[in-house]
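Handout, tutorial session.
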Amino acid sequence: MRKWIDLPPLWLALTLLIAWGISRVVPGLGFGGAWAGWAGAALVGAGLLLMGLAAATMMAARTTVIPHRDPSALVTGGVFRLSRNPIYLGDALVLAGFILRWDAVPALVLVPVFVWLIDRRFIRAEEARLRAAFGAEFETWAARTRRWI
């Protein structure tokens, strides 16, 4: 049961909540004005698009998007040609985007913290499962595809 509670969207939601709290405690630093709002919206949109494209590619390959399950296919096409973790990259973009929109510049430190947390809690285990299931095919893909971008 605990594995089902420990899912990346919950960590993203928690980190967003902390960032929002920071924006209320240290409001309106005036970081860049309107451009920051537009840049933030663009990052959120790009992150959501990236997540959607990655999830659709995984569904088309009939493999799971749930981190704790064993994969049934190694997905290397679509956005997975650019990043080994496009969903997590999308999460990080959404987080950064909301931080900019909320004018919560001190909360930007949460982006690398979130990336580190996701790497330790999910990515390492996922890559170990992929390595075990797909061996040399995974190693070839991992050698030519960066983890993030």
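The second record follows below. Compare its token runs with those of the first.
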Amino acid sequence: MAKTATPKKKKGKAAAKADEEICDSTWCEIRTSPIHGRGLFATRDIPEGMRIIEYVGEKITKAESNRRGWAQFEKAQKTGEAGVYLFTLNKRYDIDGDVPWNAARLINHSCDPNCEAQIFRGHIWILALRDIKKGEELFFNYGFDLECYEDHPCGCGSPRCVGFIAGEEYWKELKKILKKKRAKAEKKAGKKKDRKKRKEKK
């Protein structure tokens, strides 16, 4: 999910979009991420509990959110580009954060995040889960469910990484699924090996 500080000179539509992408927070800035594309990085030490940046965008109904979500997912399947920035606001509405002025959309996922999203009076804020040092990349857990989990591999590099982008409440179930898949694959590989041995004996 993410993409670096704007270069000095660019041409075309990409340049116009990059020029519009600003980080409206004194706590962080956009930089190239070693995890994925671009990300947000602390410009100074951030204390635990601090509201770092607001997740902004277009307020849309659940029905429209569902329509856009599937359209974006299908596009991602064809192009390989990740780009679903829909965020749950309440029971009736979501926020579509796919706008250049929403720098918070560039925050990458991690299975061991240093931030979390919370809603305050109809506004989505990214808060520090712990003290964050200047220069650290900001992360939060995207909280995806297990539907189509295989389409969302995780490369956060954390020792706690479960291999796929999923909310921690789904980890127990995900680990069971992955264990069954490994066992099935090992069994299949074992049978294949046995058939090969039998053929060699003949």
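Points raised in discussion: Residues 162 and 171 are 7 Å apart (CA to CA).
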